Amino acid sequence: MGFMPVPLLLWPSLWSSVVGAAPPDAPTDAPQAPEPHAPPSTAAEVDPDDALLTALLELFSDERPVHGAEALGALADPRALWVLRHSVTTRKPPVAAAAARALAAFPEAAGDLERWVGDPGLADEVRLAAAQALAAQQAPGAADAIIAAMGMRSTSSTLHDGLRALIAEHWPARLADADRLVRRDGTAMLMLGSAAGMGYALAATGHFGQSGLEVLGAATGGLGGATLGFVFGRTRPVEAGPASFATTTGIGGLVAGTTIGVWAAPSSNDAPW
Fold this sequence. Notes:
Layout: H1 11-19, H2 48-59, H3 65-75, H4 81-90, H5 93-102, H6 110-117, H7 124-137, H8 142-150, H9 157-170, H10 175-179, H11 187-208, H12 214-235, H13 240-264
Helix pairs in contact: 2-3, 3-5, 4-5, 5-7, 6-7, 6-8, 7-8, 7-9, 8-9, 11-12, 11-13
């Protein structure tokens, strides 16, 4: 059967019956509706799993471990909690400190942070970071844990000052409690220095007064000085370092003065010993 040509006048109706629209070159009187504008494109949201994986890879990398710890804290994904806890106690101080600060986003880590603030086995940088995380959390026992750490013998002067600054910033009402704590009590040294100074002074007074009360003056001065040193040390706690310096300096001055007096007047009977 041969091919039958279709008249040109039938092409529009044939096209319409097949595709349901006029042919491309067919004229139409109906106004064409404008194409709707496409909504502006927005950046695709980051998948939480991808973000967590990226932060973990950075944490365990050699290039950006600190950034990885910070990223985990920003995500606050509960799946990162055990990783950050482990990093605090096993990684080098810069990374461990970043992990401790990241734990501020996890209220359930408050107990660990309180323990780490007072852990003498951790670097000062890590202990201070744990205190900073506690301050950020404002946990109920945070101030008590930080103040207790300030009074520990293992707390260095630098760490002590950093902890005190946190108390002053976040718990100013507790600053008086913090200042009453000392790491090494200097009361004993204050007692020794006061006893030596007052005992010598009263012994010299008794001798130069020609009253024969040198021994009584020394005993009375020693007892009184020790009492004053004890009261002062209890009411205004002093670190052992400054107290020892003051005591040794004072006693050294007494010894030096006595030696000079003996050398200057070796035959004098006016010496108070």
